[in-house]
Write a structure and sequence with these properties.
There is one protein chain. With about 250 residues, this protein is mainly alpha-helical. The chain has two domains: about 70 residues, Arc Repressor Mutant, subunit A, CATH 1.10.10.10; about 170 residues, Up-down Bundle (Four Helix Bundle (Hemerythrin (Met), subunit A)). About 70% of the residues lie in helices and about 5% in strands. It contains twelve helices and three strands; from the N terminus they run αβααββααααααααα. Strands 1-3-2 form a three-stranded antiparallel β-sheet. It is globular. It starts with a helix and ends in a 7-residue tail after the last helix.
Length: about 250
């Protein structure tokens, strides 16, 4: 049991470094270096990297080992198309199981998101956004769907950082969350699912439109962590590993 808990800690640590952009897309992952930094053997690190590879957050490249996954524009399109279908399904399955207590539980992430709009805390805003969607998923009580959406959200976290790059879009996200919640509270399944679909499609269109305008090449992403909420958006795309093609 202790060994399993230890392996889970190693896995969670590396995963957090990837989804919080301490490890950037396309960066090589050395199991030896990571093990040295964590003060552990290479075995649990390699096992964690294999597991992350299976989940689509890490790539295994012949003769190079492991690298952080760098998504292409086409892959982002595919992931958002899948996300739309699953989020709509989650709304449909969650509504019959909602009671007053569960509806009230949405107040925390929606209120927090609103309060964070006054800040430049992009990661905190994304966390709050994800908390709203995670609640819908959880209330489906559909374990395979919950797990699948959780893994999907991890993969598209890169794109969601761009999705929330501009303040006006953040305001729209908050309004759309409230609209979805209102329809769910009224048990209006058709309206709620359409609202969720519009919410995801809008985000996808914003991201793809910008990325195609930028015309990102397949060059390696830079090592810098800047440009999260200011500066040239092209630097954001460059730094966070979007690529053209498949």
């Amino acid at each position: 049991m202790k060994n399993r808990h230890f392996k889970e800690q190693v896995y969670n640590s590396i995963k957090a470094s990837i989804i919080n952009f301490e490890l950037l897309p396309a960066v090589k992952l050395s199991d030896k270096q990571i093990a040295q930094e964590m003060g552990i053997s290479r075995t649990p690190v390699r096992e964690a990297l294999v597991r992350l590879s299976e989940q689509g957050l890490v790539e295994t490249i012949p003769n190079r080992g492991f690298t952080v996954k760098s998504f292409t524009v086409s892959e982002i399109d595919d992931l958002y198309t899948l996300r739309e279908a699953l989020e709509v399904l989650a709304v449909r399955q969650a509504i019959p199981k909602l009671d007053r207590e569960r509806i009230e539980a949405f107040k925390k992430p929606t209120d927090r998101f609103l309060s964070l709009l006054k800040t430049n805390s992009l990661i905190a805003l994304i966390d709050s956004d994800e908390a709203f969607h995670d609640l819908i998923s959880r209330y489906t009580e559909n374990r395979p769907l919950i797990n699948f959406l959780g893994n999907l959200h991890d993969q598209i976290r890169i794109a969601r950082r761009y999705d929330h790059l501009y303040g006006d879009d953040l305001q729209m996200t908050h309004r759309e969350h409230l609209e979805i919640l209102e329809f769910m509270d009224r048990k209006e399944i058709s309206k709620a699912t359409r609202a969720m679909s519009r919410h995801i499609v809008r985000a996808k269109k914003n991201i793809l439109s910008f990325l195609k305008t930028v015309g990102r090449s397949e060059s390696e992403p830079s090592q810098g962590l800047g440009h999260l909420h200011s500066g040239d958006p092209r630097d954001f795309v460059k730094d966070y590993g979007f690529r053209e093609g498949r």
